């Protein structure tokens, strides 16, 4: 799960100046980005004017892609720092390998959760024997200052709690929804859920008013709080909501609901690193290029991804607390 831009721009995240304390309906579209050798994703976060949703700081949506005669996803070994990665599939399989020695094939509606902590590296690829379709989302969660140097880990949760009713089948990926709580480890107040809406379903989901939320359309078309969202778009909803109306008019639809307490800390995100200063980011880049700290991924047929050059300016975290 990587940002493979060869000239990544620093993204200044956190603080609460962009967080709406009231409900809003801000529809965001994705930017096409090449991921690995053959996968194109829609990058929805960070987006122009919207950098985080709670601690969620990075969202890519991809597919459905016909990979029956293609290699599918192939993302060579690359590093991460200061974040968690969340792999979420609707179709296809992705093989995760990391510098801890973890090897795990993640299937649809299973949680692959990697906590980078102070340093980890990993690769992702479709197995040689794979199905016709590849469809999913890849997301990052920023770690708070007190936990960002934690030991790295990888957790696979094949069984997740579900909430069903009103034509909605919700799988709780992280955090809690309507009394159901995911086994996935979180470090800030956070939630993520995959909502499958039956054709004609009309439902009202309970929310926490002190969380900010967004809805990512995965497949089909859904109406979220009166706004129609198509696949690959993200509707930012702000804070102050106690419930969220959903509707599927044209047929079945699937939506990812992301939320969390607004992330007050100021941070900077560059390439695959989340840090707090230029010096941290520069040191992480140097360590990756010299083979220090991030370890080695075994079993991937290819070379690790080299780090891009740092931009010709100092990376400065910005933002202000509300």
Automatic annotation (TrEMBL):
Its cofactor is Fe cation. The keyword Iron applies. Binds 1 Fe cation per subunit. Residues 45-141 form the Pirin N-terminal domain. Pfam families: Pirin (PF02678), Pirin_C (PF05726). CDD domains: cupin_pirin_C (cd02247). Fe cation binds at residues 78, 80, 122, 124. It comes from the Bacteria. Residues 193-293 form the Pirin C-terminal domain. SUPFAM superfamilies: RmlC-like cupins. Keywords: Iron, Metal-binding. GO terms for molecular function: metal ion binding. InterPro entries: Pirin (IPR012093), Pirin_C_dom (IPR008778), Pirin_N_dom (IPR003829), RmlC-like_jellyroll (IPR014710), RmlC_Cupin_sf (IPR011051). Belongs to the pirin family. This is Pirin family protein. The lineage of its organism: Bacteria, Bacillati, Actinomycetota, Actinomycetes, Kitasatosporales.
């Amino acid at each position: 799960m990587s940002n493979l831009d060869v000239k990544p721009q620093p993204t200044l995240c956190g603080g609460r100046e962009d967080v709406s304390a009231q409900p809003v309906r801000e529809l965001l579209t994705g930017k096409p980005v090449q991921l690995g050798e053959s996968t194109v994703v829609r990058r929805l976060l960070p987006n122009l004017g919207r950098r985080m949703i709670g601690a969620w700081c990075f969202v890519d949506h991809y597919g459905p892609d016909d990979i029956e005669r293609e290699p599918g996803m192939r993302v060579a070994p690359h590093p991460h720092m200061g974040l968690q990665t969340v792999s979420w599939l609707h179709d296809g399989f992705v093989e995760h390998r990391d510098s801890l020695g973890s090897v795990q094939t993640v299937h649809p509606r299973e949680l692959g959760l990697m906590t980078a902590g102070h340093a980890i590296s990993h690769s992702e690829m479709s197995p040689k024997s794979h199905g016709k379709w590849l469809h999913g989302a890849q997301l990052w969660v920023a770690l708070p200052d007190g936990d960002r140097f934690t030991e790295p880990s990888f957790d696979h949760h094949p069984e997740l709690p579900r909430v069903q009713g009103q034509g909605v089948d919700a799988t709780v990926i992280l955090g809690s929804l309507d009394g159901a709580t995911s086994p996935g480890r979180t470090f800030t107040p956070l939630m993520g859920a995959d909502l499958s809406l039956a054709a004609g379903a009309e439902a009202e989901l309970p929310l926490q008013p002190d969380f900010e939320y967004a809805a990512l359309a995965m497949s089909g078309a859904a109406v979220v709080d009166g706004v129609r969202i198509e696949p690959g778009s993200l509707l930012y909803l702000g804070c102050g909501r106690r419930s969220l109306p959903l509707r599927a008019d044209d047929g079945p639809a699937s939506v990812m609901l992301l939320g969390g307490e607004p992330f007050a800390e100021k941070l900077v995100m560059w390439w695959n690193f989340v840090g707090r200063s230029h010096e941290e980011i520069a040191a992480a880049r140097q360590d990756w290029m010299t083979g220090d700290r991030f370890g080695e991924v075994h079993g991937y047929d290819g070379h690790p991804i080299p780090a891009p050059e740092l931009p010709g300016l100092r990376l400065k975290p910005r933002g202000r607390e509300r």
